[in-house]
Amino acid sequence: MEYDITKAKVLSSLFWKLLERGGTQGIQFLITLILARILLPEDFGLIVIVTVFITFGGIIVESGLSTALIQKKEVDALDFSSVFYLNLCVAIVLYIILFLSAPLIGTFFEEPQLSSVIKVLSLTLFFGAFNSIQNAVIARSMEFKNLFISSLSGVILSGIAGILMAFADFGIWALVAQQLTRHLLVTIALCITVRWRPSLKFSFKRVQLLFSYGWKLLISSLIFSIYINLQSFIIGKMFNPALLGFYNRGMQFPSVIVDNINGSIQNVMFPALSAHQDNKQKVKEMTRRLIGMSSFIVFPMMMGLAIIAEPLMNVLLTEKWLPAVSFLQIFCAYYALWTIDVSNLQAVKAMGRSDIFLKLEIVKTVIGLTVLVISIQFGVHAMAFGVLLNGIIAAIIDGFPNRKLLNYRLSEQWKDVLPSFLLSCGMGSIIYCIKWIGMSDLLTIGVQIITGIILYVGLAKIFKIECFHYLLITLKSQKTKTVSIEGFEP
Predict the structure, then answer these.
(1) Which region holds residue 438: left if phi is over 0, alpha if psi is between -120 and 50, else beta?
(2) What is d(CA 48, CA 249) in angstroms, rounded to the nearest whole number?
(3) How many CB atoms lie within 10 A of CB 309?
(4) Is the pLDDT of residue 478 over 80?
(5) Who's near 99: CB < 8 A, 6+ residues apart?
């Protein structure tokens, strides 16, 4: 299976990926809002603790091999089947470990019901072993329409199941049922929409070849996941599940937006960048576009979300969730930086330099843990600010390798995002003042959003921002199927 990536296919894939992420994330967000109004912050805090362990297991099951399948120039059925059987075996071993250690985890957190929840939710590891291969097949062929159908059906039906159980007073088990059902339904849908099936073949040689690239991504993902989830682990143990629920909910609002927009772009562009890995100039041009366009879209959304945080939280989740507002505002700044951070890392991975990727994660984690050790002494809010500080440092560190790999200097990168940053600050300072008019929360949110959009677009047009100009051209030319995927001139 070789890359066959045309300009039209990239744009079509980006459309379906945005639709898939936007649709599923949007529906999931609405479902979470409904569940949050019914259930208690403690329920969400407990499920976050369980998710920490499941996340680690999922990373190990995937082993970085699905990414290796996407990055490798040529793969065949033997590659896919070998990775699948290895992932399945790892999932079995990890499930047994989590099943046996579940009572100890419940005792450690002094929450007996965690034991049963972990035993049930750990079943999602098996679905992940299968879905990671299906997703690699989709990414290589850039047939993201299939993923849209599978994800949308899964999130809708599982959401209904979770809501019904919440109304029936099942508490945390409503969240468990929702997650488990979603993974099951997505797996079934992928089996229907994706034609790939494992063959009865396995090759240690193929696995070793893929693992030579993938193991560095595996370690990198584990390091990053440990650092991020360590926050939840510490809050859940040292403080209380309710505070963890506020912390996690504040993180979720901006992450939904960034995962939808930025994540969709990255998922589509990684195979596209990998296809041109022998052409450094092309990769640089595409990376510049990636950083510029992502920041132009994400920066104003994060600024706007931070400003409307309090009335939004009050309207959507009621007053019981207002303590999450300050966390939400901090994480808006953190996730805005991902536009620079993740784009640089995608280029590094696409160039086949997983060794550099690993080194970057080690350096960032050492710095992050140092900040965490210091900030934990000052409380949960200090920990959140510590995450933000580490995000700023990470955005700088992750940009260094591409200075040599692509001749893309840090000064160029920050120059590419500076217009979007300044426009967002200007827009934000104006719509912030609207809160003093004294309108109702709902009306204030509406006026701020509409005013913010008009101001941002208007300023982008007045100052002739390159990203805005390119975005208009892309939207217009897409209608006539003549849009170019070449790099823009900054």
Answers:
(1) left
(2) 10
(3) 21
(4) no
(5) 118, 119, 122
Whether residue 265 contacts residue 16, with contact meaning beta carbons closer than 8 Å, is answered with no
3-state secondary structure string across 166-235: HHCCCCHHHHHHHHHHHHHHHHHHHHHHCCCCCCCCCCHHHHHHHHHHHHHHHHHHHHHHHHHHHHHHHH
Task: Output b/e per residue, 427-455; b: 16+ Cβ within 10 A.
Answer: bbeebbebbeeeeebeebbebbbebbeeb
Count of H-run helices and E-run strands, the chain: 20, 0
**What burial class does residue 319 get, using C-beta atoms within 10 Å of its C-beta: 0-12 exposed, 13-18 middle, 19+ buried?**
exposed
The count of other CB atoms within 10 Å of the CB of residue 133 is: 25
Q: What angle do CA 192, 195, 201 make, to 5 degrees?
A: 125
Q: Is 193:154 a contact under the CB 8 Å cutoff? A: no
Could you tell me which residues come within 8 angstroms of residue 78 by beta carbon, excluding any fewer than 6 positions away?
199, 201, 203, 206
Q: Distance (Å, rounded) from C-alpha 59 to C-alpha 357?
A: 16
Closest alpha carbon to 294 in 253, 319, 266: 266
Q: How confident is the model at residue 319 (pLDDT cuts 50, 70, 90)?
A: confident
Distance of alpha carbon 124 from its chain centroid, rounded?
18
The answer to whether 189 touches 150, Cβ cutoff 8 Å, is yes
Question: What's the CA gap between 116 and 69, in Å, rounded?
Answer: 35
Tokens linked to 486: 């070449």
| Domain locations in the chain as residue ranges | 1-237, 239-480
Strands (E), 255-303: none
Residues 265-277: tens digit of each pLDDT: 666 666 677 777 7
User: Are 264 and 20 in contact, with CB atoms under 8 Å apart?
Assistant: yes
Task: Round to whole Å and give the CA distance between 473 and 490.
Answer: 15
Map tokens 């890392």 to a residue. Answer: 345
**Joined tokens for residue 329:** 């505002």
Strand partners, 2: 74
Q: Are 247 and 324 in contact (CB under 8 A)?
A: yes
**Which of 60, 57, 419 shows the shortest CA–CA distance to 217?**
60
Candidate from 153-157, 219-223, 430-434, 446-450 with smallest mean pLDDT = 219-223
Which pLDDT tens digit goes with each residue over 329-344?
Answer: 999 999 998 878 888 8
